[in-house]
Amino acid sequence: MASISVDRLSKIYPVAIKEPGLQGTLKHFFQRTYKQINAVQNVSFEIAAGEVVGFLGANGAGKTTTLKMLSGLIRPSTGIVKVGGQIPFRREAAFLKQITLVMGQKQQLIWDLPALDSLKINAAVYGLSDRTAAFRIQELAEMLSIQGKLTQPVRKLSLGERMKAELLAALLHEPQVLFLDEPTLGLDVNAQVAVRQFLREYNQRYNATILLTSHYMADITALCDRVLVINQGQLIYDGNLNGLVDRFSPCREVNIEFAHVYPREKLALYGDVQAVEGASVRFLVTQEMLTKTVSQILGELEVVDLSITDPPIDDVIGQIFQSGTAETTKAA
Fold this sequence. Notes:
Layout: E1 2-17, H1 21-30, E2 33-48, E3 52-56, H2 63-70, E4 78-83, H3 93-96, E5 99-103, H4 115-125, H5 130-144, H6 159-171, E6 177-181, H7 189-206, E7 209-213, H8 217-223, E8 226-231, E9 234-240, H9 241-248, E10 251-258, H10 264-267, E11 272-277, E12 280-286, H11 287-300, E13 303-309, H12 313-323, E14 329-330
Parallel strand pairs: 3-7, 3-8, 5-6, 6-7, 9-14
Antiparallel strand pairs: 1-2, 1-4, 8-9, 10-12, 10-13, 11-12
Helix pairs in contact: 4-6, 5-6
């Protein structure tokens, strides 16, 4: 059974249009006109219980709007959404107790109070007993390595420590579905790694379903085997992370160390030269020409070492957003 089920989900916002000048202001006041903005358009997907899925898209692509519909913050214009068998926008207690939404730029902890005080408030909101709350706080604090920080005012915590405390607060009621919107935003490398490790452990320990958005591709590659890619409100890819490279990047990187330094003009005859550092050269070669090109290089030039790799996933995602591809692909 799917933990998250989305069928032809759309969100349309009416946006008022105002013409410049006094006349435009008066018209805007008495006879306002609107245009329709399609933030999300006919998006469909399913996520199984315990699955960790990356949700990728450029700024304004529709990621946060989709997460807000899944978490019940806003109501869809059209389509059907079910999370844990519940309809999110009804915001029934059974639904709210099994989900959480973490937004990297939003804070729920009270700034001037110790984090522990905010955690006790959260526990009361979710109806947790003192014993259960204490057990959960201790367990999550150990997982997050933040045991000694919860009695300090939130304002005195580092950014990484605050993010850990925010995660603890969001997961105190043991939700089974986690919607995470940029949870590592602004964190240093060490803090990012710590948050990733925690999310991986939480998923394994509680079989929690996680839908994760992030601009840090290291978050996605470390946690997600499957990704959803949204562009201009449309879902353009749903499948394996490795398949994303095959689908959207027709080229491979060929890295070669030559025995001699060859002129760039000569190297350009074999492929798209991306970088030259002495005798080390990086080519970009289409898959169709890969075998022929490599054979030709090996036969005509003196090669010391050669390797073929996929282009970095960051580059692939960048190509998708730049091209504006809107051809939906579902990969196994």
